[in-house]
Amino acid sequence: KMTQQMRDLQLAQARKPPGPSSPNAAKRLYRNLSGKFRVNYTSFDEGSLAGRGEKEKLRKSYLFQSNAALFEAVELQDLDRVQELLRQYSPEELDLNTPNSEGLLPLDIAIMTNNAPIAKALLQAGAKESPHFVSLESRSLHLSTLVREAEQRVNELTAQVVNEAPNADCSEKEKQLRAWEWRYRLYKRMKAGFEHARVPDAPANVHLSVASSSSVLVTFWEPLSVNSAVVTKYKVEWSCSPSFSPPLGEAVIDKLKNLHFTIRGLVSGTAYYVQVSAYNMKGWGPPQASVPPFAIPSNWREYDGRAPRRRGQAEALDHLLGQVKTVHQHCVCHEPCKNQPQSRKHSVSKSLKHLFHPGSKFLKTLKRGLYLTAIFYKDDNILVTHEDQIPVVEIDDTYSCLLMQDFLWFTKVSCMWDEILWLRQCVTVSQSSCSCILQTRFKMLLAISQMQGLLGIQDLGQVFFEPVKDKQGNILIVTLKEVKTNQTFESVRWVPICKLQTSRKSVSSPDEPTALDTLLISIQDKLAYHQRSSHALSSGLYLGYLKLCSAVDQIRVLVPERLPNILCHVKIRSNPNISREEWEWLQKMASVEEPVPAEAEAETSQNYLFQELQVAIKELMALVNIPLQEAKDFRLYSQEVLDFGGQVSFLLLLPPSDDVCTAPGQNNPYTPRSGFLMLPLQIFELGEEG
């Protein structure tokens, strides 16, 4: 049957154009394919059925040539070209897993020539081995047939070249002969690679950890030995018995981008043993047992049956807000203004008239007072008014100093940009008390409504953690928002930030810069802060450092500049789950004066956690500039593990009780290096929630 296939192949090859005469000629051929077969599809009449058919035919031809180019690149061991084709086309467009006329796939050629870099690149892209090779014998027979048929073809062409007189036809035969000689050598190299290969060694560093109450996570590395053929897949097996008899299940991993696997659907409290083996073209290698040898699915909450802290909180808050809105639906704030006291009616009507009056505009200059500015940016451009000014509206022209409590109240309002009208109506009722605080907050809501109306957008973004002030008594509350889509705004346009800074510099006073000048000078720092504060941590367990300092009107928390929405931290491991056994060990360590670590030789999850914590604490102390000997009195917060969405969790490292929060006038014994911020606690909480 194989001989008949090769005869059919010969006939097909005879009908094909002659192959490349040498490796160099082949390289030139496939490197020029993309230009040679490029089609200008726009030249076809889209309304013509014949045109559409021709277009589809040419597209298929183009993709076929791309597939041929990939085979040529693999055969010539051109890694750069292989990577370029994999980037340029999808696996489907390349027909990555469709065998060629010889029954081979690109991955087959790569692994049988033992070209590990190309094989790994193909595997990362989703390449498979040929389905024709169902056994070692079938692969060996197939390779022997390819070598024999190629040798026969070389002998035939050699005889024809020797016996025929020199002519154009003979020259063409010589090209075919050189091409087949090269292919003969390729097949012999593939056959030798297969014959000398051996099964792979066991995977290295097989580590088992508890992922949840019903799952365990196994991670591993490829075998350390480089003398065997390329590994193309792995097998994970698990059982309740250390002898794996009977086995409970297995999974084959052929997507090798990340060498890990989560075994799900397990029974909490039951011990599971895991082993991993590797596969190459010679078969499966020996299994490697995990370290530790078993894991028991569990979670730290099972230690005392504690429910998640935030369970149902968001729903409860939504329900509470709905109740408040229902109560206010028929209250006096929704009655006509005639029900308001006359003095307040005049003031509120005047404010509303100013807000909706056609002449309502952004401010060009600041006088002494409190203002709101909205910074919208996209790449290196910023949104400005038609007068090339940052959008600014007035909050209160009689306000000389911003109280921290008013500012923090404003930051909370920023979580409800869509509810400003409702909030404004509710605050209106309370103004009968003539409270200065309520007056200011009502004006804040009016300014927000005015900014929203002038820009034509509700969401003004995130409030910067501190207002911008100048010596003239101006105070700017700054909101920041990145625009990633082609969003339409009213009364504004985009300009480059550098252009705005240059034009502002020409009219500002260097001796006494206004709040707007200061804002523009520091605009890049504020945009960088905004972008960094929206970054998320990768999945894992982290060690965080809690350090506070108090002032008369606020508490501030130490955070890194590079990630200001998270405490100072280092990563302990990629698995965010703390098992019941690990948490029980942590509780035990927290209750004794001098913790005694687990034995160094013990292969337990507790001992691994101890080693990971040792490394993490040293790294964290170096990060915040605290000598390690001074950290001997520090302690782990043992009340709970802080959980953020199930993918990120934190253990907290605390200074001694008296040093957790530094009081006003008290020396801070632990001063971190540059690269940190002392953020108002309420601002930090809002960022952490986001």
TrEMBL record:
<dbReference type="InterPro" id="IPR003961">
    <property type="entry name" value="FN3_dom"/>
</dbReference>
<feature type="domain" description="Fibronectin type-III">
    <location>
        <begin position="202"/>
        <end position="299"/>
    </location>
</feature>
<dbReference type="InterPro" id="IPR036770">
    <property type="entry name" value="Ankyrin_rpt-contain_sf"/>
</dbReference>
<dbReference type="InterPro" id="IPR039269">
    <property type="entry name" value="ANKFN1"/>
</dbReference>
<dbReference type="GO" id="GO:0005819">
    <property type="term" value="C:spindle"/>
</dbReference>
<protein>
    <submittedName>
        <fullName>ANKF1 protein</fullName>
    </submittedName>
</protein>
<dbReference type="InterPro" id="IPR013783">
    <property type="entry name" value="Ig-like_fold"/>
</dbReference>
<dbReference type="InterPro" id="IPR036116">
    <property type="entry name" value="FN3_sf"/>
</dbReference>
<dbReference type="GO" id="GO:0000132">
    <property type="term" value="P:establishment of mitotic spindle orientation"/>
</dbReference>
<feature type="region of interest" description="Disordered">
    <location>
        <begin position="1"/>
        <end position="25"/>
    </location>
</feature>
<dbReference type="GO" id="GO:0061172">
    <property type="term" value="P:regulation of establishment of bipolar cell polarity"/>
</dbReference>
<dbReference type="Pfam" id="PF00041">
    <property type="entry name" value="fn3"/>
</dbReference>
